[in-house]
């Protein structure tokens, strides 16, 4: 890892690092091993040490929770000059480093690419000046560079998410939630300035009334439009208005729009009591979220693989995230596109700026506009279709955000929206009511399920449910839930031959903490549960650091699905995670005990072991606790902790709010398209493609018929037969110093930035 300032000063290298950026092992040329600088004043080229030796890497491995940048980060003026880069090249050659991973924004990555281009010339000049031997010019002839984007702004083109962004969103949402709580007792708008992408996504995540973005300035006359909207919301008994202002917000004439200007406008025009909160560097601080820890680990591995596969002809690349898939893109293509965004804004080509930001940003902006601004009823063409929304299964944080999104998009499309309360049980009993635009106001940040949800399946009540669908003239059904929702959708589909009422478009949006629904890499609620597990593990490890020589056994939820245990272990730096998908026996337990016994001889005298609740019928949490306690006598003591239903509770994380909002909006768009196909023809929907699960799979959001997903499902254990996250399991073991091989067959290949991703 390299930080330019220290590289030039003979004590380090670069990267504007953010929360979640882990330690990366770079391989040097043969005979020089792997190198990394020590923190604060250490010499460039301090050899990496493994956790077992108690080296500095051990500290960073055992403390994945601190935010900021452990190895340091700074903007380096010296590196901007050729003299500075000459010193940096000399330092790298002296340590045998020919592979460089740079973590930072577009400026940092541009500097890295320039350094790479100048490399051969720098070495020749160093040899000419006698600072290095002539044979070193040939020996270190090529410098390979791979970038990882670390920036809370998420303003780098070519990636859907940069390392640190999710953690910053956590800070913003926490502040906005706190403001909304305290402001319920007083009337008036509240302004929260934030960065660009952060402003947009936090506006989606908290249901803000108005958002100001530099890429999409408000139209002329926005002052009057905003005041009218605030007045309308107040007339609907809404006691609080949230206005989010991006840093650098402008109008169509490129004149700045500040939070103070907005406050003055609201106070002058409406007389509302108004407060301004400037978040500032609060957004950079705090512990990294579970998403950022895992993203940093995934991108770090991908960067190492890219370096090891690089040849002298390989251009500098950046490791990016496209959906849920890691890709490699030419570094300068991404940098150029990022700079084109600013150029477009300077030239007032704002539509081009939004397009260049990428499909994720454009999609977020379009979704926000649809959910935040309601047209007058007389301007919405009515379809005369009734669409019902139901929650099924266990509660999951983000369900309410998904319901809100579905209701508002459905109303905007001209449908009459119906809410079904208490799952299929309530459906059979006729607990169905029309739900309006304002009825779902403020739902985004609320946990649990406001509609109510149960695990009851529809099989026993098919006749009653069909009657209710006929009585309420339900033309389409959106099911939000977990594996029970998936089973329920299968039962409704199978009953179409007997009950024509079920011959309507039906789509399911996955929502379960277990993340065990076939057809989707992620489920609403899983990220919130993962953050709960990670936060708890952080606290437990902090407790253990004081007592020393203590091992904690932590049981997670998930049924037979080991997603929470495995990914929680990766995010929290666990020593082991027991899951159903990877069978284990007494020999594995013995190996883990021996590993922890050796670990207690190092400076890190604590252990963390996670266990999925259904990973083994016989090796229960109590059994493992008793085994560890007995075998560890005299070396370490043991404690256990069953997290239980606290993993289902709490306010939804920013990821779950936004994922639920966007995927539910997409489901409603699909329903609208299906209903338009049948309009005026009295068409009955009997084909498989009219009963689907909507999910994200690698790069794409796709609809998959449940009939096709049946063969991909292990119904006995309620899990998909193939699960993407199992490929990350060796990474957790490697980081915990177990011998494991990492499958690189699915690693990203160098691609060009395609128009569809722009």
From TrEMBL:
Signal peptide feature range = none
Q: According to its UniProt record, which cofactors does this protein need? A: Mg(2+)
What cellular-component terms does GO give this entry? 6-phosphofructokinase complex; membrane
- A Pfam family recorded for this sequence: PFK
Q: What Gene Ontology molecular-function terms does this entry list?
A: 6-phosphofructokinase activity; AMP binding; ATP binding; fructose-6-phosphate binding; identical protein binding; metal ion binding; monosaccharide binding
UniProt keywords, alphabetically:
Allosteric enzyme, ATP-binding, Cytoplasm, Glycolysis, Kinase, Magnesium, Metal-binding, Nucleotide-binding, Transferase
Q: What catalytic activity does the UniProt entry give for this protein?
A: beta-D-fructose 6-phosphate + ATP = beta-D-fructose 1,6-bisphosphate + ADP + H(+)
Which NCBIfam families does this entry report, sorted A to Z? 6PF1K_euk (TIGR02478)
UniProt protein name: 6-phosphofructokinase type C
Q: Which gene encodes it?
A: PFKP
């Amino acid at each position: 890892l390299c930080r330019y300032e220290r590289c030039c000063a003979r004590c380090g290298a670069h990267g504007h690092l953010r929360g979640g950026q882990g330690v990366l092992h770079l391989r040097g040329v043969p005979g020089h091993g792997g190198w990394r600088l020590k923190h604060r004043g250490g010499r460039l080229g301090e050899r990496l040490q493994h956790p077992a030796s108690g080296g500095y890497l051990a500290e960073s491995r055992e403390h994945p929770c601190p935010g900021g940048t452990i190895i340091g980060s700074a903007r380096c003026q010296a590196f901007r000059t050729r003299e500075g880069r000459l010193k940096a090249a000399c330092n790298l050659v002296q340590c045998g480093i020919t592979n460089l991973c740079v973590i930072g924004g577009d400026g940092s990555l541009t500097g890295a690419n320039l350094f790479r281009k100048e490399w051969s010339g720098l070495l020749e000049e160093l040899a000419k000046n006698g600072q290095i031997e002539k044979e070193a010019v040939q020996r270190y002839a090529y410098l390979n560079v791979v970038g990882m984007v670390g920036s809370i702004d998420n303003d780098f083109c070519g990636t859907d998410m940069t390392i640190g962004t999710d953690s910053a969103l956590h800070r913003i949402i926490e502040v906005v939630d706190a403001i909304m709580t305290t402001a319920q007792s007083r009337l008036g708008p509240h302004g929260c300035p934030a960065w660009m992408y952060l402003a947009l996504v936090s506006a989606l995540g908290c249901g803000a009334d108005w958002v100001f973005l530099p890429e999409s300035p408000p139209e002329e006359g926005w002052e009057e439009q905003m005041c009218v909207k605030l007045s309308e919301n107040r007339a609907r008994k809404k006691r609080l208005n949230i206005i989010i202002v991006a840093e650098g917000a402008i109008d169509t004439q490129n004149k700045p729009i500040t939070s103070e200007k907005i406050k003055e406008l609201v106070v002058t025009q409406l007389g509302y009591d108004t407060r301004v909160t400037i978040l500032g560097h609060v957004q950079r601080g705090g512990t990294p979220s579970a998403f950022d820890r895992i993203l940093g680990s995934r991108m770090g591995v991908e960067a190492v693989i890219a370096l090891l596969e690089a040849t002298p002809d390989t251009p500098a690349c950046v490791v990016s995230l496209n959906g849920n898939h890691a890709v490699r893109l030419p570094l300068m293509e991404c940098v150029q596109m990022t700079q084109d965004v600013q150029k477009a804004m300077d030239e007032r080509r704002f539509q081009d700026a939004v397009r260049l930001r990428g499909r994720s940003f454009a999609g977020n902006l379009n979704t926000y506009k649809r959910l935040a601004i309601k047209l007058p009823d007389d301007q919405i063409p009515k379809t005369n279709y009734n669409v019902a929304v139901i929650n099924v299964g266990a509660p999951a944080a983000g369900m309410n955000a998904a319901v809100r999104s579905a209701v508002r998009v459905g109303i905007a499309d001209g449908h009459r929206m119906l809410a079904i309360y208490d799952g299929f049980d309530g459906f059979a009993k006729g607990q169905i009511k029309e739900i309006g635009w304002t009825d779902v106001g403020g739902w985004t940040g609320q946990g649990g399920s406001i509609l109510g949800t149960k695990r009851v399946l529809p099989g026993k009540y098919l006749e009653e449910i069909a009657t209710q669908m006929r009585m309420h003239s339900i033309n389409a059904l959106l099911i939000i839930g977990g594996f029970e929702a998936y089973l329920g959708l299968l039962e409704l589909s199978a009953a179409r031959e007997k009950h024509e009422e079920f011959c309507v478009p039906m789509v399911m949006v996955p929502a379960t903490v277990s993340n065990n629904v076939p057809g989707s890499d992620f489920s609403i609620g899983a990220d919130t549960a993962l953050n709960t597990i990670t936060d708890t593990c952080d606290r437990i490890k902090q407790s253990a650091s004081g007592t020393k020589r203590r091992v904690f056994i932590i049981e997670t939820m998930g049924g037979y699905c080991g997603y929470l245990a495995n990914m929680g272990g990766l995010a929290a730096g666990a020593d082991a995670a027991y899951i159903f998908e990877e069978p284990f026996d007494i020999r594995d337990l013995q190996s883990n005990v021996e590993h922890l016994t050796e670990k207690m001889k190092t400076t890190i005298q604590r252990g963390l072991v996670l266990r999925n609740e259904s990973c083994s019928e016989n090796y229960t949490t109590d059994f493992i606790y008793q085994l560890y306690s007995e075998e560890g006598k005299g070396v370490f003591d043991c404690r256990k902790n069953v997290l239980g239903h606290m993993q289902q509770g709490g306010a939804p994380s920013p990821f779950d709010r936004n994922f639920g909002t966007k995927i539910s909006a997409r489901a409603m768009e699909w329903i609208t398209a299906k209903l338009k196909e049948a309009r005026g023809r009295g068409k009955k929907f009997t084909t498989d493609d009219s009963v689907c699960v909507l999910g994200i799979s690698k790069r794409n959001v796709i609809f998959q018929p449940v009939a096709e997903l049946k063969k991909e499902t292990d119904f006995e254990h309620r899990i998909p037969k193939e699960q993407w996250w199992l490929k990350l399991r060796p990474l957790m073991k490697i980081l915990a110093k177990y011998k494991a091989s990492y499958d690189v067959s699915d690693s990203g290949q160098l691609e060009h930035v395609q128009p569809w991703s722009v």
